[in-house]
Amino acid sequence: MPPDDERSNYLLAKHTLLDRIDRQPAEIHRIRGELDGETAAAEYHLELDGVTLGLAFQGLGPDGHTASLFPLAPALDERERRAVAAPHEDVERVTMTLPVLSAAAQVLYLVLGEKKAEAVRLAFQGDPDPVVPASLLRSTHGETIVLLDRAAAARLDNGS
């Protein structure tokens, strides 16, 4: 989808983050979603050559997906390419792969809402499992931070 499509993650990031800061990032690596998935993924794979993320800012879906890494999807097993097409029921998607995302100095999850409480429990208290892709994504050389509201944290075992 083009960058001005209301479903575009780029448009969301632009309106909620980029348009609100005085100093723009030195680099923005936008996925060209207006291309077909395979072409956009191949182009993005090349664009990410030599790029190491400082921050991988992640959400979490109620099904445990993060980025466009969905439960049991072939993209979870990709170790060579930096970006892949990730077809899904709603729209053709492109996603960075686990090796690229986990190489970030910081992986930051922001999760809100009770609809995601079970996914939070499985992703952050369960064992790594491709059924819950977010359980597979942690920073390998830095830190992983998880920010939750009370509703999203409701099913976590607090140790008591």
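Next protein, fold it too.
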Amino acid sequence: MENQLFLLIFFIIIGYLSGSIPFGYIISKFKNIDIRKQGSGNIGGTNVGRALGFKYGLLVGILDVLKAIIPIYIASQYLIVDWQMALVSISPAIGHIFPVWLNFKGGKGVATTFATIFMVLGWKYSLIFLAFWILLLLTSKIMSLTNLLIILTLPLLFWLRTNSIAYVFLGFTYIILIWWTHRENIKRLRQGTESKIIK
């Protein structure tokens, strides 16, 4: 029991520290740009893409997913209790949103959430989820709106895949986190001033 508690705390810390690596900030710095002073000021792939171009935004997005998938996957080899894995799974998102390296002011947590989706749903269902996300983005043409809407499906998807209350709560926790980090986007959406990623 004590060993499992130690492993849980260890993987939560590792997940947080991995999630807090600010790839958007680091990559933009290599281009002599402080991404926090560009566009929305966010360090995520969307803002990096607007400032530096699509390929850099995609790179940041991929790295942000990987920095969450890796610690979650490693933890899954040692932890078997759903509640433990749920806590570990959300720790990279917490690190991304509140990175210790940037005075706890980070990204919005969408890419790191996708890492959990991939780990819970598996790659086949994740591809279907991704296709639906792309379709929704092409329809709405607004990244923030797409993310806000699709995140609402997580509790149901997690339940259908796992039949686990722990993962249902995890899904609801992601909804709260993502909607909170998008609070400025929500204001702009209500005002009709939110930027479209696809013209």
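About the second fold: The chain has a mean pLDDT of 93.
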